[in-house]
What does this fold into?
Amino acid sequence: MTFILLFAGLAILLISGEFLVRGGVSLAGHFRISAMVVGLTIVSFGTSAPELMVSLDAAISGHPDISLGNVIGSNIANIGVVLALTVIITPFIVSRREIIDDMIIMAGSFLLLLVLLHDLEFSRLEGFILVGLLAAYIYRSIRNDKRQNISRPVDIRYSLLLSVVIIIMASLGLVVGAEMLVRSAGTIASMMGVSERIISVSVIAVGTSLPELATSVMAALRKENGISIGNVVGSNIFNVLAILGITASVKPYGIDDTGFSLDMIWMIGMALLLIIMVLPSKNVRMSRWKGLFLALIYLSYIYLVFFVK
It folds into this structure.
């Protein structure tokens, strides 16, 4: 039964990811905003919904290590698994100009998280600050996109109302699929007798990152490269500002220092590595070797988490 739930959850994630991309592209056409901005905002929020549900539930039920570990692990997995596999499956060209600022903001949000957790506690005020920064980020993304005033081909497949409904239903599908997958994967992981931190930064993190994987792969296959990489970068920003911000605003909590400092250093390192990868030229090819390299770094991290004390 556990494995049936595992595969059923994966199937729901893949279908929901496909429709989230379709709805997002159609919505972008209606408002004449770029696919990159849609990926950085609407699609990112939808694919981050599983992390939000898991983190809120964990914090409220008295498992703060799972709440924080889920976010940190998901951010690492989004780069080392989601983006890596997407590039390995279908390499693509990305405009450095369109994404570099958001990558820097992503790295900055990671550094801010490291600073806020110096006392091993998340206060309600810190949660409000993160949510405020999230609102500013969304406003900035849409404002900058409008200022560029670029003439783009309009891809409107559905009406405005139907596009919104598809995005909402697809996001709900991602939550349901992720819940099924996380529960089944968590059951398997618990049998291994590992700590909450290890479970949260590995199994649960990868499970809640599968919506990003499904959405990014589907977007790349449909040649919506802006959504593909924008989803990864935007989801990482949302994970810190929205998920941890909302969670701390609802339920302030403290954590045990059980290796999270090292996890955050890995998270920041992955972000800096991604920035280095897109710096060489204005239009950067995300080739398969880059995907393989990111995946190798991620596997090294998982090895250290499980086997190095």
